[in-house]
Design brief:
The structure is a single chain. By secondary structure, this protein is α+β, with helices and mostly antiparallel strands. About 25% of the residues lie in helices and about 20% in strands. The chain is built from four helices and five strands, in the order ααβββββαα. The relative contact order is 0.13.
Length: about 180
């Protein structure tokens, strides 16, 4: 009996030791893109997920003369990301990032595959082809500051609205009774 009790800890430790053995590294191509050195705040990722956007699919670009239209930021496809940039001359540059590959790029778009399984599409209205190429070449993951500028302000907690038509007794239904005139 004492021999069994002494051998039990070793038997329980054996699976852990065996799983730690190995000389091959995991295939990094299947892993999501690593976070930048200045990692985003978890609160920002939570706000993206609440909007239906997968945080790993958020990409931005920089093109001189174009400004992000903050109200255009939203979901593309199932859990992708989209945003539009505008210029004073009326030109509009659209960026969308989804899961997929650049192989199925529409003819009037420029597509990039910044990470395995991600495709970023750039298109525009009144935008010269060289400007589209510059925008596609400048596609990158947002820094925490860039991401903060993309996201709408975080919702703030507010006090409940006080309604004057709710009675303080009963089931709380509004008082819709009719007066004597009926």
């Amino acid at each position: 009996m004492t021999r069994t009790v002494r051998a039990l800890p070793l038997l329980l430790l054996l699976p852990a030791l065996l799983t730690a053995c190995g000389t091959e590294k995991a295939d990094a191509g299947d892993a999501p893109e690593p976070a930048p050195a200045t990692a985003r705040q978890p609160e920002q990722d939570d706000r993206l997920r609440a909007s239906g956007i997968a945080p790993e699919l958020v990409y931005v670009t920089e093109v001189p003369g174009f400004t992000l239209a903050q109200q255009s930021v939203g979901v593309s496809g199932d859990d992708g990301f989209s945003a539009a940039y505008w210029a004073k001359n009326g030109a509009i540059l659209r960026l969308s990032a989804e899961r997929g590959s650049a192989a199925d790029c529409p003819e009037d778009h420029i597509c990039r595959a910044p990470a395995k399984g991600h495709v970023v599409r750039i298109s525009g209205e009144k935008v010269a082809p060289d400007v589209l190429r510059r925008a596609a070449d400048a596609v990158h993951r947002p820094t925490p500051a860039e991401l903060a500028a993309l996201l709408p302000p975080a919702p703030t907690a507010t006090a409940p609205v006080q309604r004057g038509d709710l009675p303080s007794y009963g089931d709380g239904a509004p008082d819709n009774s009719v007066g004597q005139a009926g």
